Structure formats: structure tokens, C-alpha cells
């Protein structure tokens, strides 16, 4: 009896092996093999000079080398991020237009800027997770985060800040922090910008008192002494700037806030094209060139595949929706 059972099991295994090595396996091997035959347009919804732009351009360079056609990065700013994200979502889903869909795809619809949501794009991969900071001009009188917040408590509305669009992630980082510390979300007034690059220029020129972009986006300005970092909205130091105080330790609320950047395509992007891009991005972020680039910016290599990215988009939409409602920005 035992021999009969063993023989049956052996036969089943042989049959399964044969099936796996037959047409099913061949079909699987044929997937994720799409290659562009002409130039690809890569949309960035934010201005040059910021972290999204820098990371996307580096990724595009590596994809260009891997896939053998030009990857042309174009900055489509405006509408607090709506213009670029809408252009990406409404492009033809043929693989020749992809883009950097940022965390604002999970915030814009909550504040009434657009009906566009993460459901209107096809996530390919997540390749950056920047964390907010609190920055001031080199000549600012505020020497610590507590100094800054004390001024905001005593003179609400006097100070101004920038970093991204109205209701964008760096705005939510500031408004959420203020609310968590018992102040009005607009105790420091928000001045919208087209991204971290323009906001940092305004900060250095004295046009605003505070900027709250990713700490990595301001690393060169910090290194050059143009701006000072009062805080990093994290519970873990940034390796390249470990001396920057952590909000998790400095604040009673322990407030933290981070963002993300994805490579995405329009809704309806065929699976073979999406998984081909996912495969190429995975190879790019595992390359020495990408590791060197990330190190130069003081950041670690991060990667999420299509399924993980879709889950991140969905869960973040819910979480940030709660934050937007709590700070009174929902419409």
C-alpha cells in the first residue's frame, strides 16, 4: 500500500514538473519582455531643483541605458501638482508616457483641487521615501524648533512657510505638526510653491521664514551654510545629517511625516508593459550607479514593487485623508 501511495505521489510530481516546463512556463517567460521602440516621455509634476525631479532624472538615465531609447523628462508644473498628474493620468496607456506620481495623488482630491485619485494611474514601482524637515534661513533668529514654535504660539500668522502646493505633503507635515502641538494648523501661514526647489530659493532670499521639504532636498544648501535645519520629522536620524534634531524626540507629540515618489503610468497600462517597467526599475535601483547617487544625497535605496506600491497608495490615501480632515483642509 505504501509503495502504491509513493508511486502515485511520484507520478503527480512528474506530471506537475512536465506542466511547469511546458506551455505555462513558456508563457510566463514571455511576460515582462516589452521594449519601447521610440522615445519615452517621463512627466514630473514639480519644478526642477527638487528631490522628485533629481531622483526621476537619475532613474530615467538608468532606464534609458537599460531599454535603449531616450527617456525625456519634462516638468509639467501648475495647479498645485494637478497639471502634471492629470497629464500623466490622461496619456495614452501605450508605455510611451510614464511619470513620477508623488504622494500628492493621495491629497489633491481631499482638498478639492481635482477629482483625480490613485485609481486613475497604474503604479509601477516606488523608488523614493523622503522625510520632511524644518528649515530656516542662515540668518534666521530662530536657533531651535522650540524657538520657532514659541514664536508661532505668541504671534500666530506672523511666520510664513513653503515647500510645495497648498495641501501638498510638506504643507500637511507643517499643519499636522502645529495641530499635534496644540496650535492652529495655520499658526504658520503656508505660501504655495511648485516644489522644493522654488521654496528653497524663497527661503534663502528671505521671502518666507520656514521651509519644510524633505531634508535630502536641502542637503546641498545645508552643507553650503545657506540654510539651517532645525528638525527632521522622523524618529531615525538621516545618515548624511545625523546631527539634525528629530521631531520624535523634540516634540511632546512625537510628530513625524514622510512622503513617497512612484513611477507610474496611465490607467489601463497593459500588464506586460507595467511589469516590464517594474523589472527595469528594480534592476536600476539595485545598480551601483543608483547606490552612488542615493549616497550623494544622503539617502538610502528604497524599492517597492507594483503590488506593494498599490497598497501604499491606497493606505496613504486613507491616512492623509484623515490628516487633511483633522486640520480643516478637506473640501
UniProtKB/TrEMBL annotation:
InterPro entries: BUG, Bug_dom1. CDD domains: PBP2_Bug_TTT. Pfam families: TctC. Belongs to the UPF0065 (bug) family. This is Tripartite tricarboxylate transporter substrate binding protein. It comes from Kushneria phosphatilytica. The lineage of its organism: Bacteria, Pseudomonadati, Pseudomonadota, Gammaproteobacteria, Oceanospirillales.
Amino acid at each position: 500500500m505504501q509503495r502504491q501511495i509513493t508511486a502515485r505521489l511520484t507520478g503527480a510530481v512528474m506530471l506537475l514538473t512536465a506542466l511547469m516546463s511546458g506551455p505555462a512556463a513558456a508563457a510566463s517567460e514571455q511576460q515582462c519582455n516589452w521594449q519601447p521602440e521610440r522615445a519615452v516621455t517621463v512627466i514630473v509634476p514639480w519644478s526642477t531643483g527638487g528631490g522628485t525631479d533629481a531622483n526621476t532624472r537619475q532613474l530615467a538615465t538608468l532606464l534609458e541605458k537599460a531599454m535603449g531609447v531616450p527617456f525625456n523628462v519634462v516638468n509639467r508644473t501648475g495647479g498645485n501638482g494637478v497639471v502634471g498628474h492629470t497629464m500623466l493620468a490622461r496619456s495614452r496607456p501605450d508605455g510611451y508616457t510614464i511619470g513620477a506620481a508623488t504622494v500628492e495623488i493621495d491629497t489633491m482630491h481631499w482638498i478639492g483641487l481635482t477629482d483625480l485619485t490613485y485609481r486613475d494611474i497604474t503604479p509601477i514601482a516606488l523608488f523614493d521615501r523622503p522625510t520632511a524637515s524644518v528649515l530656516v534661513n542662515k540668518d534666521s533668529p530662530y536657533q531651535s524648533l522650540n524657538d520657532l514654535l514659541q514664536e508661532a504660539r505668541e504671534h500666530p500668522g506672523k511666520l510664513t512657510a513653503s515647500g510645495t502646493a497648498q495641501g501638498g505633503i510638506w504643507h500637511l507635515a507643517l499643519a499636522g505638526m502645529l495641530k499635534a502641538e496644540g496650535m492652529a494648523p495655520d499658526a504658520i501661514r503656508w505660501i504655495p510653491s511648485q516644489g522644493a526647489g522654488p521654496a528653497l530659493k524663497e527661503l534663502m532670499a528671505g521671502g518666507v521664514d520656514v521651509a519644510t521639504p524633505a531634508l535630502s532636498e536641502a542637503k546641498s544648501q545645508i552643507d553650503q551654510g545657506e540654510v539651517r535645519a532645525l528638525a527632521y520629522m522622523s524618529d531615525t536620524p538621516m545618515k548624511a545629517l545625523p546631527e539634525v534634531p528629530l521631531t520624535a524626540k523634540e516634540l511632546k507629540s512625537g510628530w513625524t511625516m514622510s512622503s513617497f515618489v512612484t513611477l507610474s503610468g496611465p490607467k489601463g497600462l497593459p500588464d506586460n508593459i507595467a511589469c516590464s517597467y517594474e523589472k527595469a526599475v528594480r534592476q536600476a535601483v539595485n545598480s551601483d550607479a543608483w547606490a552612488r547617487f542615493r549616497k550623494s544625497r544622503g539617502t538610502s535605496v528604497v524599492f517597492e514593487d507594483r503590488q506593494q506600491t498599490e497598497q501604499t497608495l491606497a493606505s496613504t490615501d486613507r491616512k492623509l485623508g484623515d490628516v487633511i480632515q483633522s486640520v480643516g483642509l478637506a473640501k
